[in-house]
Amino acid sequence: MISSSVIICTHDRAAVVGRAVEAALPEAAAVAGDVIVVDNASTDATPDVVRALQVRSGGRLHVVTEPVVGLSVARNRGLEAARGEVAVFLDDDAVPRSGWLAGLLAPFARPAVACAGGRIVVQFPGGAPPWFSPALAPAVSGFDLGDSPRQLCYGRPGDVYPYGANIAFRVSDVRLVGGFSTAVGLKGRQLFAHEETDLCYRLEEIGREIVYTPAAVVDHHVGAERLTPHWFLERHWAGGYSAAIFVLRNRGALRAISRVRWLYGRALLPGVSRSEPLLSAPRFAEECRRREALGYLAGLASGLVRGRALRGFGVAMSDRRSDRSAT
What we know:
Number of domains: 2
Structural class: alpha/beta
Helix content: 25-40%
Strand content: 15-25%
CATH superfamily of the largest domain: Spore Coat Polysaccharide Biosynthesis Protein SpsA, Chain A
Largest sheet: 9 strands, mixed
Number of strands: 9
CATH class of the largest domain: Alpha Beta
CATH topology of the largest domain: Spore Coat Polysaccharide Biosynthesis Protein SpsA, Chain A
């Protein structure tokens, strides 16, 4: 089987990161891989937690640091440290099921495959809140395209690129296109997204394949701090903003502007459920969609002002410093 490195990026998540690492280690051992934790400028007990796990790992766990806060920056740091041919990204609050890593690596037997992603099952402590509906699952990384493996293509109905809680990339292909862009993606408390979408799109543009593999399953544990209406509204606004930046970067201004009408037009109009309480499930899902549309408009305006500079905005892996700490 192709060699792999499981990469877990974490920032101030001492309470949860240990569970993800402990579940990833036996999966990596089963395929002779390793695990890398990228400590992204943590100020809590995260360094102590991962160092203790490293001591008990028998040399299979490595820890690197990235002082610049941002998920895309941290993931690029992980790619630099990757020893395997495939870099497998697992969220610090996700727990893989048995056979996860082998299932995620299997598609890479085909040289054309540059990215594979699997099913992400959302787990709520104490159950989902009453205002939650399946339409909101993507905001907390819920991802399920069914039971059949398939190639995914941008813009094809029913196709969505894999989510970062459970995704793998062929390292050589990612380096070829410059790694993750820092124009998008989570940055501290800023809930931006689309870093995987941006990378997958660039890989598909050079002829590589993106695939869905349902055999690779993780459980994504959603913390109580995210289970508030305010968090979901902010997440959707930031997702819309990020979507506009992604389209402007990769598809141009005309495409970005045209999406306002055909993708968000209905969300910006008065909805059929506005007479219902805001925290009824249908009304709240509608309001989240409206916030996403407003975020898209804000991102579009910001991106158009930045103009051509946006296309080059990011961190090319070849330009990054090589003097980072690693153990």
